[in-house]
Amino acid sequence: MSNGPLQIKAISGHAGPVPGLDTSRDYSVAKLIDVTTCIGCKACEVACLEWNGYPFRETIFDNTYQTMPDTEWNYYNLIRFNEYVDEAGNLSWLMRKDGCMHCADPGCLRACPADGAIVQYTNGIVDFNQENCIGCQYCVTGCPFNIPKFNPETKKVHKCTLCSDRVGAGLEPACIKACPTGCLHFGTKDDMKELGEKRAAQLREHTSHTNAGVYDPAGVGGTHVMYVLHDIEHPERYGGLPKNPTIPLLVRIWKGPLKWIGNLAMAGGVLGVALHYLRFGPKQEEHDK
Amino acid sequence: MNGRAIETGQQLPGFAALKDDGSTACGNWIWSGSWTEAGSQAQRRDNADPSGLGIHPNWAWVWPMNRRVLYNRASCDVSGKPWDPSRALIWWNEGQKKWVGNDVPDFKPDSPPKDHMGPFIMNAEGVGRIFAPLGALADGPFPEFYEPTESPVENALHPKQSKNPVAPRFSTAMDKYGTPADGFTIVCTTYRLTEHYHYWTKNNPMNVQLVPEPFVEIPMELAADLGIKGGDKVKVSSARASYQAKAMVTHRIKPMTIDGKKVYQIGIPIHYGYRGIQEDAGRTARSLTNSLTPTVTDPNAHTPEFKGFLVKLEKA
């Protein structure tokens, strides 16, 4: 961590050590969503709208408890409801709070060509700065979780900020604060990972969920939003959570080797023009006779 | 709530300090002792558990008087010794002439075992009740099972007296009851949703956005039998009224097998009615779930019997 808060080094007239000195601090943050204790009340959805100042909207009954089919540019947080019936006929009613995963290797950021439109903070939060967004929607292509959403009126893209404005002020995200069952947790990435693994082990040991595990996919470098799932082998049952999410190949090539080749081509072009100038000199204008 | 002395304003240590001469005031005796002169007892956070029994006596506070186990005198034999010495909650201390222990005694603290005061101090006879005479319960001294007023089956224990004979019933034109023979073969239940609060929140756009319309939850198999698809309008009729809403076809309600017969159950959330954002906009039927339900109550607790009654279901 480069610039933490002011740390006192010495104190006058003080007995004992300086509080907090030489302690290591982990500034990375993470949200842990224990889907096994979510009751689908949607308090997190409302808290998200209220904190971000977005309007309530008219929704349509669609044979489900899910508020709407998908997240929207001004609806970052959506609980997906799925009824899963296994081969033996046992039913699971699965609820998953869907939203930005805050990848350690964010595909949106990799894909974005606009300077400063997407930033990743050292604490792991990936944030969009709409004032720098050019509306190209490459981030939409780059995201393996289908999270960034385009506002056609302003031509800007939006997504969950992990309440960077709250976290920056030492508060937890609004959804965490609203959760009545405590299925949403917020803390350092290490703590949340440990908490999640502990819960998953508890489920494996004491319940029939012998495949319980923590979803922290390596394909995107791990995420700062993690899930405890009843069955880590089948994340797709929870409303299309990808098993092995990766940044799309096209984005990786485009922003990797192709970018290098493109730069080379551009440099080559400039060099060619310079050589042409040296060899043939400036273009002579033909004057009208 | 804790209770205080009116003259001095002092917070009382517990309900034993309440007086019936007007010198103390208290909102509710069971909370007396929760906020004493030492401050909020509910905010205590000492997680020590000296007895190892999970009592944690100084962690927060429970009513009444921070007793962790009610009627804990029953954990001792007649002579005042714990039935199970490894799990001793309280015991009679002959030297101190009082009840002591790991928990706060839920008992007259100085009543010796030889006086045979019963542990169930809220009952006149001081013992637990399986047989409750003297009209303590409206429907007899013994616990008994009765089918709901509207049930798909007769009572397996005593078919000739299937329903509770002393359950209060009214005799207006709306107090009619349906039977399977009249075609009311489907069990209906009513409930609330986490997203709504009674009938209030149908006026709040925040809650209405989460669950915009009333619906009827219908098992897959029943919906297939009746040709109902999710989102179709359906009509639910009881002997008293009918109700219209959209169908939510689900795996979550399974058919039941009762007395060898397949019985379907449907469920209706109660939250919609005459007025509200959706009702005023004309987007939903203005029917009330509780027009379907029977106005019959439990004779003791007077809880209405809205959780189990009979209906017909059809496409609207």
Description of the molecule:
The complex is a heterodimer of chains A (289) and B (316). By secondary structure, chain A is of the alpha+beta class. Helix content of chain A is 27%, strand content 16%. Chain A contains eight helices and ten strands. Chain A has helices at 43-52, 107-111, 138-142, 164-167, 174-178, 189-206, 249-255, 257-280, and strands at residues 29-34, 78-85, 91-98, 118-120, 126-128, 149-151, 156-158, 184-188, 213-215, 225-229. In chain A, the strands form four sheets. In chain A, strands 8-1-10-9 form a four-stranded mixed beta sheet. In chain A, helix 7 (249-255) runs parallel beside helix 8. Chain A starts with 28 loop residues before the first strand and ends in a 9-residue tail after the last helix. Chain B starts with a strand and ends with a strand. Chain B contains three helices and 14 strands. Chain B has helices at residues 205-210, 220-226, 277-280, and strands at residues 4-5, 24-25, 35-36, 39-40, 90-93, 98-101, 186-191, 215-219, 233-237, 242-250, 256-258, 261-263, 265-269, 309-315. Chain B is mainly β. In chain B, a hairpin with a 2-residue loop joins strand 3 (35-36) and strand 4 (39-40).
